[in-house]
Design goal:
This protein is α+β, with helices and mostly antiparallel strands. It contains 19 helices and 14 strands.
Length: about 725
Amino acid sequence: MSVRSPTAPQPQFPSGAAYAEALQHTQLCFRHPELKGARPDLTKLGLPRAISGAFASVFSLTSATSGQRYAVKCFTRYVPDQERRYQAISARLARLDRAELSQPWNLGFEYLPDAISVGQERYPVLKMEWIEAVTLSSWLDDNHADRFAVDRLADRFSALTRDLSQHEIAHGDLQHGNLLVAGDDTLRLVDYDGMYVPDLAGLGGTERGHRNYQSPLRGNDDFGVELDRFSAWVIFMSLKAIATDPTLWNRLHQPSGEFLLLTEEDFSSPGGSTGLQTLLAHPDQVVSGLADRVRSLAFQPLELLPPLSDAIPKQRTAPTVTTTSPGPAAAPAGGAGGLPGWMTGHVPSPARPTSTATVSTSPDGFRGRTALDVATALLWPLLLAMTGVLLMSGLPMPTAVAGAPVAAALLLTAFARSRRVERAQARAALAGLTQQLSRLDEPVKAAEKLRKEKEKFEAAESKRSAAHPKEQDKLTARYHAELKEAEQRKVRKQRDIDKKIGKLAEDLSKALAKALTDKQNAYVRDRLGRRLIADSPPHGIGPTLAARLAAVGIRSAADFTGYRTVQNNSFNSTGAVLVLSNGRLVNVTGIGEAKAIGLDLWRRDVVASAVARQPKALGTAERQQIEQGITRRRAQLTDQRSALEPATEALRVQARKKLEDGRFRLTQEHTLAGREAARQRQEFSQRAVTLKQNRAIHESLSASVEAARMSLRRLAYAHYVRFIYVGR
């Protein structure tokens, strides 16, 4: 394998659109026999349908030779060591024994270098088996109200992460789009671009994963077995929360949102997070506990994050009791010594104690004397006699020496008693029974706990039942408010349109008057422009002055509008300047006040003559054009007014549909909640039965413990001394 220089430019990959264009001719762009001539899924426009991501576009192709459907991943961005990574991932996944996995989550794939031609270049693709499944978020859209299905899926997700952890694999981008739910509600993992396997240890990461599922402390180079831990906690917490309270899906999830319940902002700023605070304040301890765990993990280094298996607390083992009569087969989900409902499936359920228990204890007293017992019985009198002889001999000796035979007799008896198996059996039996009794929940406390849970449940159920008609009333009130608003909007628009229609006659008069004025002004300007000074000069204006006037732009009556007098201080005389049509003042040599007055009078005569001859009315065509414009405006306004009623009716229909949909949703939620309440009440009944059985076992074990203590007392020192002489 060639090694790319660190300074070498990264290769450029085609865009998704370029791949789609090439896939229109799979007979030409592919060499692989399964892909050559394959039929791609098409859009409505007849183009290959692409599912685009940050690094690649995925196309669905059906092989023309085998009919097998494949997902073909075409890369749009460069990934370092891509071929090496996929070879290592493929080899590691191929070694997995599917029989040992919790579910068939891994999909077979094949990395094909130089597989597809785009333009003049060839590029690699990833060929994967196609799976009929939906994304996790789409599945939750349809199934979030089914608490049992969501809880089961949470358990399966936990099992999937356990599979990955046991085989030292990390997916690298666990999120709703890469977790697919198959038809049998088992999970599939897709998108192995960022996957970690042991053979890739030492390489850097290629991505950070979806931002709404990753720890704020994850960097681009993080790459190891711990990559999935934070996202696994986030997804598990979300699923368990929805399973506990399905309303959280609609409260915290946004339609088509790129997250489940929480986003990147919730992890980076938990104090200001509405979603996280909602979960932390949830009355269910499972929801609030998992949310608090996720909050605490958000600011811990990746290498210190615990695996998801730490979410499952250890379960105490229930006492094992030899029974004489079998109890009921079914065990409740909770209760004394039972598992909380959210832990079901994560830890093995303990052996369930039954109603009547008998415990095997040691024999009541000593049975059957041994040689040591007989020897002890024989030595007792001898040692006592020896003590008497020593005391009656009158010899001076210490008291300890005289009492030594008695002490020896006592020690011998204690030793012989300690060798009796009955005593060891009695101690072992008492210890075992005491241990079993300690493992059982105290019946009174367990019953009180159950009573409080039932009271809390019934209070919540009463509140929910009372809220149902209120929610229906809110829907009805909202419906009537929307109808009223639609009607008011229609009336307002009708009033505005009627006002505009009423002004159309006035608008026509104004338009006709303006058109006539514009026509007359144009006629006068034209006549003024035709009267040239050089052709019909005013009195006193000869060719020389006409030429001077033309030089400054005054050739016709249209080129100036009058004159202004000016005072010449040097000669103490009055002069004049002419006013051009653009308002500029010009001084023409030879044009004094008298000649300026003559020019102005000449112009006024021309203007008067033009005004006298100007048109006094619009032509028929001109008038018709204006009237047609007003007619079109009237028709438009009339059409707008006519369209108001259908538009308002559409709003009424929409409001009605919202009302019906809301009522259906409320009814469905109420029905599901009623079923769940019935199930919960049945569970309480089962737990009550179990409590009654456990109480009997507790009483039986307590009696057995007391009997064992009595048996142990019958094996006391004095009882043993009597036994070695009497035999009982």
